[in-house]
Amino acid sequence: MPEPDHPPLNLIKQPVSIGHEDVVKELATFKVELDRYARKTIGQPLLNDIVDNDRGTCALHPDSLIAVLIPFLNWEDQNGQAYRAFVDPKHVIGASIKGHPENVPPEEVVNRIERYATYFGSRDNALYVWYKPLGIFIAHEGKHRVAFMRSHDQPAIAAWVQEADYPAPSRITIIGVIVKSGGWRSGGSPV
Asked: Which of 12, 117, 119, 140 has the greatest number of C-beta atoms within 10 Å?
């Protein structure tokens, strides 16, 4: 853990292509929308079915969803100690488990924005795993503040960050499956 006098890093601008950054932002937005959908009558049961979630009592956790959407995630070890950094909430997959941004009483909004933007506290406050090669952060702690800060168009969340790798393409082999009796063949052509 860094000494308290080490300044936090600024990880707001990601070193990825614009197209890649757009995909990350859309994925983070998609997660916020899924969390809203989970509060609807059929939303949570349907989401539980899609990602084989047996909890069924809250919105999907970021790591559960991302492990379904991004193959080979969590194959690599997390690297090193967590450090303090400012992170763009548009690059973070969070979860609105106990409510949505509009559930925060209006008189608390300004103080909460200030706290989330400046207070690091401990790793129990906000700990994000950064898949640096993918340019995406997964909230381990501090999940709820992601949608809140996005909804208030805030540029940064103060968080502890721990890096994790994604396997290099040379380490990944994808094997196609051929369906013999109707359906689709690997490569996307009908049988």
From this structure: 140
Residue type (1 letter), 53: N
Alpha-carbon distance 40 to 42, whole Å?
6
Report DSSP state, residue 178: B
Instruction: Count other C-beta atoms under 10 Å from residue 45's C-beta.
Output: 13
Q: How far is CA 157 from the centre of its chain?
A: 13
- Spatial strand order in the sheet of 9-10: 9-10, 78-87, 157-164, 127-131, 136-141, 92-93
Contact 142, 135 (CB under 8 A): no
Question: Per residue in 132-165, pLDDT tens?
Answer: 888 899 999 999 999 999 999 999 999 999 998 7
Task: Work out the angle at residue 51's Cα, subtended by the Cα atoms of residues 45 and 53, and round it to the nearest 5 degrees.
Answer: 60
DSSP state at residue 170: G
Quick: pLDDT tens for 49-92.
Answer: 776 666 655 667 888 778 778 777 766 666 678 999 999 999 99
Cβ pair 9, 85 in contact under 8 A: yes
Nearest to 94 by CA among 121, 128, 125, 70: 128
Q: Are 66 and 130 in contact (CB under 8 A)?
A: no
Cβ(125)–Cβ(141) below 8 Å: yes
